[in-house]
Amino acid sequence: MENIEDLKTKTLEDIAKAADVKTLDDIKVAVLGKKGAITEQMKGLALLSVDEKKVVGQKLNLVKGEIEQALDNRKEELAKRELDEKLKKETIDVTLPIRDENLGRVHPVSKIYEEVVAIFGEMGFDVADGPDIEDQFHNFNALNTPANHPARQMQDTFYIPNPESDNFDDSYVVRTQTSAVQIRTMEKKQPPIRIIAPGRTYRSDYDATHTPMFHQVEGLVVDKVTTFANLKGCLYDFVKAFFELDELPVRYRPSYFPFTEPSAEMDIGCKKSKTELKIGAGNDWLEILGCGMVHPNVLKACGIDPNEYQGFAFGMGLDRLAMLKYGIPDLRTFFESDVRWLKHYGFMPLDESSMTGGLSNNGGLTR
């Protein structure tokens, strides 16, 4: 039989020199496998006397144990070394500047959302939210919108059948305006109320300036002393901050909305040409939002006494604001998931909007 000590010494040396796990596996097979050196010597024990078998068998078991332990230790060392090398290769130096091209882009609508929230947040407005699928009470009835109003026609509104009722009046709608959030807020909270309600809205329309799904922001203030002058001042401060202009001509035209009385549309000054629209001083006007004093019927529907409280409300399209501020000609492109369009009109993710740090951060524009 091969000298056991020589076998042990040679095997342990080979294990110590092994550079990878595969080499260790080959050593294990050559020494401890079915036809390995230790295994063959174990088989040879049958030819020895009882006394010799006891002595040699004990030595073989000890050597086998040492070799197995050496294999395990070396395998652990190699695994640790491999992990260390991998971590070293994959180490990221957090002190290096971020590579902008790997961050993607923030959609203009998301950017406008941040800007609007930042501006009204400085004015003390809270952000309110509500469901996209509404009942007709919150979407129409409580907003003083009669059953025969054009906005309630099926060619303008997406209706969802109520599985528990065959009555059309019980049908649900995919909300046509975020004004429903104002109703839900007034139902839950007593004045004073000062909120904006940004979110998705849905109407059956599709062209260069309309899409079936779009984004709005509605504002609501209800208090004991609230006037149209307060409304005008609030909106004037907003448009100046939003378009980042020190002065911006504005005007109000009488209008009609079921949920406000009196109602108005707000125009801002601009200069139009065949190739350009410039917001600011000019000879032209551009309608930007609707507004008015909250109708007493709306306050009554929400359990608020109109003899004690009054309020104002306004609403505007976030997508339209984005088109005006960043020169985007077609609303439909907002929702086409074109990466090239997003790379052109999008913003860098780390350019956060704030009244102190800047709104649009024009350096973030990729065009």
Describe the structure.
The protein is an alpha+beta fold. The protein folds into 2 domains: 4-90; 105-364, BirA Bifunctional Protein, domain 2 (2-Layer Sandwich), CATH 3.30.930. 38% of the residues lie in helices and 20% in strands. It is built from 11 helices and 11 strands. The strands form 2 sheets. Strands 1, 5, 6, 7, 8, 9, 10 and 11 form an 8-stranded mixed β-sheet that branches. A 3-stranded antiparallel β-sheet has the order 2-4-3. β7 (250-257) and β8 form a beta hairpin. α1 (4-17) runs parallel beside α4. The longest helix is centred in the first third of the chain and has 41 residues, at 50-90. The chain is elongated and about 115 Å long. The model is unreliable at 362-367 (pLDDT under 50).
Write a concise synopsis of the structure shown.
Helix content is 38%, strand content 20%. It has 367 residues and is α+β, with helices and mostly antiparallel strands.
Itemize the secondary structure elements and their pairings:
Layout: H1 4-17, H2 21-32, H3 37-43, H4 50-90, H5 108-122, E1 126-127, E2 133-135, H6 136-139, E3 159-160, E4 172-174, H7 179-188, E5 193-202, E6 213-223, H8 228-243, E7 250-257, E8 260-272, E9 277-279, E10 284-294, H9 296-301, E11 310-317, H10 318-326, H11 339-345
Strand content: 15-25%
CATH superfamily of the largest domain: Bira Bifunctional Protein, Domain 2
* CATH topology tier name of the largest domain: BirA Bifunctional Protein, domain 2
Overall CATH class of the largest domain: Alpha Beta
Q: What Rg is obtained from the alpha carbons, in whole angstroms?
A: 37 Å
Total tally of structural domains: 2
Instruction: Please tally the β strands and state the result.
Output: 11
Chain-averaged pLDDT = 86
Helix content: 25-40%
